[in-house]
Amino acid sequence: MRKINVIPLPNKITYLGGETETAAPETSVCESLGEEEYILTVDKDGTKLAGGSEKALFYGMQTLRQLGKSCPCIRIEDKPAFPYRGFMLDTVRHIFSIEDTKKLIDAAASVKMNVMHWHLTDDQGFRFFSSRRTDATKKGSVREKSNFGKLKESGSYGGYFTPEEMKEIVDYCAERYITVIPEFDIPGHTSAMLHAYPHLSCTGGPIDIKTCQGIFDDILCAGKDETFETVFDILSDIIEIFPSEYIHIGGDEAPKKRWKNCPDCQKRIADEGLKNEEELQGWFTNKVVEFLESNGRKSVVWNESLRSGLVKNSLVQMWMDRKKDSVAYANKGGKIIVSDFFHYYCDYPYGMTPLAKTYNFDPILKGIKNSNSVVGVEAPIWTEYINNFDRLCFMCFPRFTAVAETGWTEKQNKNVGDFCRRFEKYSDILSEIGITPSPASEWNPSPLKRLKIISFLLGLLDRE
Ligand code: ACM
Ligand code: ZN
Predict the structure, then answer these.
(1) Ligand 1 center–CA 159 separation, angstroms
(2) Ligand 2 geometric centre to CA of 212 (Å)
(3) Could you tell me what percentage of the chain is helix, strand and coil, using 3-state DSSP and rounding each to the nearest 5?
(4) Which of 26, 278, 300, 321 is the most exposed place for a label (fewest CB within 10 A)?
(5) CA nearest neighbour of 396 among 421, 430, 428
(6) Whose CA is nearest to atom 2 of ligand 1?
(7) Is-above-0.90 flag for pTM?
(8) Short-list 63, 42, 60, 44, CA closest to 52
(9) CA dihedral 437, 121, 85, 328 (to 10 degrees)
(10) Residue 241 has pLDDT above 90, yes or no
């Protein structure tokens, strides 16, 4: 019997015998089904789709689209394993156009992803147009050159997204039941913002927009009140453009070197009765979280934000967490999203992260006591080494699709070989969208081929 080729694989499939043509479905919203749950029947009596909401009907339609013009007679009862199924796009290190971003959104929607995390600010550029703080964008969005390991580009590089463009993406996503979560990464990864506002650094600057990858010492000064006035203004602009319940405020890779030597930061530590600079980051984060909450929004933070032990009410995105702060946070009642560096980071070569490794990763991390504390999965693509859309697609596909399947399909229904079989057919949809995935020969390289990773890592060290 012919099996269906749908990605993500539906959780309950009953083959009714025989084959039939698919048709535009008779649809109904059914209150007894969950918000993302649908039932699709295709048989000799026609095509019927019931869903718990319009969103669920949209998901049923994605399944139907993948069934093609004819399929086995079938009843599919389906709902997701996790409520949060996302991808992250870094448009700082390299910019991706609105048109290309829409292609990624179409691909994400076709596999029932529901979050686009948009990384908009970092050391190498400030790509969010802030109406209240125009210098952040005007002065912070153009770097002199690009020098990312082997990828060196002479000449200035820059640009930003206007409010209209960002709203266009928000609307495009909303039509596909995808929420855009914008990221304003603070207090670290802020060289571009500090280039515009050097007085918000601990030293007073000047500070350059960075032209290479890395972690940089100059971060927002937590001792100066003006830092918060500026951050809140930028967040107010973000809130006006993005209607999402959650706003991502970063918190990753914030070195404490400047804070240790800054009289303002040290005064803050003393005045607030904090133990050290790590606690100062916790205090900083809580102040921003409170601002968001007073505006009816919630926060997402990278896992380093937990190091102080002071952050309590944020959704935590785990990416690299040797100390297992995220697991401890989850076990105390917190919620986490899993974007594990070694499995879900799509910017690393298949030699380092073969597709099977991504696909088979279980986001219920070791030590988690209640699986409900893991709300979902997200596949990030960082773009230091990716300066064109074809390369981006090569790195992200099929990986985004594999993470989408982990987000939707229950663990016991997953199988990597079957996924690869289904992906071959699914790639017709990607080509309709305008996306070329990497060829199957790349996905799971032999150990010998994986040695290529060494040359890649050496390339990383090949800085100016
Ligand atoms: C990260 O990769 N620095 C979140
Ligand atoms: Zn300071």
Answers:
(1) 22
(2) 24
(3) 40, 20, 40
(4) 26
(5) 430
(6) 319
(7) yes
(8) 60
(9) 130
(10) yes
Indicate the burial class of 448 (C-beta count within 10 angstroms; 0-12, 13-18, 19 or more): exposed
First to last CA, the chain: 59
Closest-CA residue to 288 (of 329, 234, 334): 234
CATH 3.40.640.10 fits domain 84-460: no
pLDDT tens by residue, 10-45: 999 999 999 999 999 999 999 999 999 999 999 999
Domain assignments of the chain as residue spans, ordered by start: 12-78, 84-460
Residue having the nearest C-alpha atom to atom 4 of ligand 1: 252
Q: Give the amino acid at 373.
A: S
pLDDT of 403: 99
- Give the ligand 1 atom nearest the CA of 302: 4
Class of domain 12-78: alpha beta
Q: Which residues on neighbouring strands pair with residue 51, listed in sequence order?
A: 29, 38
Cα separation, 142 vs 160, in Å, equals 9
User: In the structure encoding, which two tokens stand for residue 420, read together?
Assistant: 């690869």
Phi, psi of 25 (to 5 degrees): -80, 155
